[in-house]
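Summary of Year 1 activities. Much of the first year was spent building the evaluation harness for sequence design. The harness presents a backbone, in tokenized form, and records the residue chosen at every position. We chose the following record to illustrate the format because it has been used consistently in internal testing since the harness was completed.
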């Protein structure tokens, strides 16, 4: 019996496998394609995605191979720049490099992708799942305790499970090209040109190339002449195409699966949700699925967490997906406005820049800081929140120190204040009663407070008193098997 079977070896499937293996859960990874994907594809890794790479010990290598843009540059009027400070700065890394880093990590963990294997059927029975898979040696029947589908928008697993994928097609076809260009272009910024019913995005890539993206009519020929015409008509003057490396066209959709879990089967990444490509949110959303699911599943597999913790996966990830679909949909509409509405948009952008709103609010939205999970883990017992403390479901504040061993426990209790205050002493006692579930760290500070942090980058609870800490203890006891 396979403990966890993962279908799909894109970045979401690979990250899922690595995260589970690092938590001591054996996996098998099946991939229909014979070879790893090529090209830049999803290139923007915002803060949540970088945190997952840090969990896997890959963040430094990723940063060494990528670029860190300093600003978003919207070419409207005299130009609108949105500076990207450290908490909001993404990493530009072509997806084939992300895939390579993750697959190399998978090999170091003793697992390899089984390529050229196509799933043909999925059947749930008796609390486990049986998958029929066709490979070089014929059809294999694989029994697994758990199945995670990370096999993309056209997910075979999702279809076999009979899970609907409602939504709509985004009314635009996009050209995607990688090329070398010459001319005046600041390579430290992400560039957006928004015209009446047209748009052009140029992003620098490691190695000196750029990525060019633009909505085009469906019958547009995919040629060097087309790319140069887009640069001339929508971009800056004098930008010349020197070498076309790769070109393709694609369509996007706005869809969310009706459920992200069916029995022992879970959907993750594009198999669970898809949306407009503008804003570079897709891979980040999928990698957050990984962070949300893997600690819960590992806790259930090892018998430290109650199985019902897995019920929160679909609730929380649907909420996050709905927020991203709404946000990227609005961005797409803003990019494709008609002439009169575009003038209003451009004036609004300039006003928001002058007032600092773009820097204070827009950049954190793109970077994932504004995504808040519903209190699925809390049920009806939502605790009171002290002023100036992050609320349950908020992102873990960027100022919190990174965990030393992110895979050792399910929760992290961070206390601040005087060392001998009652709160940190009580927190230390609580951690001793929950080995393998809770780790306690104390940091000196003037004000006494605590944060109960989840391993997926979100706050479970926060407070200032030992009474509030009792609510955290109640939550942990409700989720933890070994306390029964």
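For this record, the design step produced the sequence shown next.
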């Amino acid at each position: 019996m396979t403990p966890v079977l993962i279908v799909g070896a894109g970045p979401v499937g690979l990250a899922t496998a690595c995260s589970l293996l690092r938590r001591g859960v054996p996996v098998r990874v099946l991939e229909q394609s014979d070879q790893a994907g090529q090209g830049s594809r999803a290139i923007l890794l915002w803060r949540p995605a970088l945190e997952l790479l840090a969990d896997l010990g890959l963040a430094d290598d990723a940063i060494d191979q990528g670029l860190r843009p300093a600003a978003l540059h919207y070419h409207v009027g005299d130009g609108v720049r949105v500076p990207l400070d450290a908490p909001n700065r993404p990493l530009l890394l072509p997806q084939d490099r992300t895939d390579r880093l993750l697959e190399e990590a998978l090999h170091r963990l003793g697992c390899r992708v089984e390529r050229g294997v196509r799933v043909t059927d999925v059947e749930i029975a008796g609390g486990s799942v049986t998958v029929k898979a066709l490979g070089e040696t014929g059809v294999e029947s694989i029994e697994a305790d758990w199945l995670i589908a990370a096999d993309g928008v056209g997910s075979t697993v999702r279809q076999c499970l009979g899970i609907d994928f409602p939504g709509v097609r985004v009314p635009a076809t996009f050209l995607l090209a990688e090329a070398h260009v010459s001319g005046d272009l600041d390579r430290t910024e992400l560039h957006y040109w928004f015209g009446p019913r047209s748009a052009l995005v140029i992003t620098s890539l490691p190695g000196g190339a750029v990525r060019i993206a633009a909505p085009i009519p469906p019958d547009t020929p995919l040629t060097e002449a087309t790319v140069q015409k887009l640069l001339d008509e929508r971009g800056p003057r004098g930008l010349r195409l020197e070498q076309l490396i790769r070109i393709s066209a694609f369509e996007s959709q706005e869809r969310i699966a009706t459920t992200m879990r069916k029995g022992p089967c879970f959907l993750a990444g594009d198999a669970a949700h898809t949306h407009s490509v503008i804003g570079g949110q897709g891979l980040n959303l999928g990698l957050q699925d990984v962070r949300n699911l893997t600690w819960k599943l590992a806790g259930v597999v090892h018998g430290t967490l109650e199985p019902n913790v897995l019920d929160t996966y679909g609730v929380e990830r649907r909420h996050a997906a709905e927020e991203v679909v709404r946000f990227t949909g609005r961005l797409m509409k803003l990019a494709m406005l008609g002439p009169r509405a575009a003038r209003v948009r451009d004036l609004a952008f300039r006003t928001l820049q002058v007032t600092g709103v773009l820097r204070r609010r827009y950049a954190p939205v793109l970077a994932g800081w504004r995504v808040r999970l519903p209190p699925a883990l809390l049920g009806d017992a939502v605790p009171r929140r002290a002023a100036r403390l992050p609320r349950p479901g908020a992102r873990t504040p960027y100022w919190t120190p990174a965990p030393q061993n992110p895979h050792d426990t399910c929760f992290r209790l961070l206390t601040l204040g005087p060392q001998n205050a009652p709160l940190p002493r009580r927190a230390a006692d609580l951690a001793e009663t929950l080995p393998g579930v809770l780790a306690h760290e104390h940091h000196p500070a003037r004000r006494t407070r605590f944060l109960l942090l989840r391993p997926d980058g979100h706050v479970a609870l926060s407070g200032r008193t030992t009474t509030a800490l009792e609510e955290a203890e109640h939550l942990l006891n409700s989720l933890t098997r070994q306390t029964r």
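The radius of gyration is 23 Å. Quantitative recovery figures across the full test set are reported in Table 2.
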